[in-house]
Amino acid sequence: MTEKKPVFDIGDTLMPSYRIQSKLMGDVFRQHGTGDPPEFRQANFRIYTAGDVKSYLEDHGLGDANPVRVIDKYKDRERRYMEENGVFRFLKNVSREISEAGFISDNTIEGKKWMEKALEEHGVKYSDLVVSEEVGVEKPSPEIFQEFLDRTGRPGDDFVYFGNNLNRDPACRDLGMDFVLVTEYRVYGDTEKDFETLDKLDAEKVRKHL
What we know:
Strand content: 5-15%
Shape: globular
Number of strands: 6
Number of helices: 8
Largest sheet: 6 strands, parallel
CATH class of the largest domain: Alpha Beta
CATH topology of the largest domain: Rossmann fold
Order of helices and strands: EHHHHEHEHHEEEH
Strand order of the largest sheet: 3-2-1-4-5-6
């Protein structure tokens, strides 16, 4: 039987995005003398877009903070985390030992550009990267998964999707993909549902789910 191909969510699947963003915002607020920020709501915030960052800062009394500098700091922390914790190495191992990975993420086009550049700079080969902003819908809408399948020219049952959001990511199954819950970082949704799980991103562990 032909081995299926892995497809990954990005935020809180490949790296602890919530933790990195929350720590960054805490640092920004403290640097401006206002203490810790309110509870950080990732689902309503787009960290790569200056307009969204500016609105977030202004809404919480930090209108004098430079949103572009905040974004640059986030990108640097994200890149350093992926380097220091072997995420790029993991993806290269998947590409070399299994097949070129794909990515489907609720994210902006700016976020996609950053990720594409980071993958290229670190020599990671991949099949395709689809984000919600370019499709016009977010998961669990089937269109975002279908867009990935259309670009690859393969049916859903050729793929296994690795994600961390139980309210959104299992929708991939409606298009024939298998789903594996990644629990290494932050898991959203009903954790009592019975799914295969992966506790750490490792090429051999990924292979066992394909």
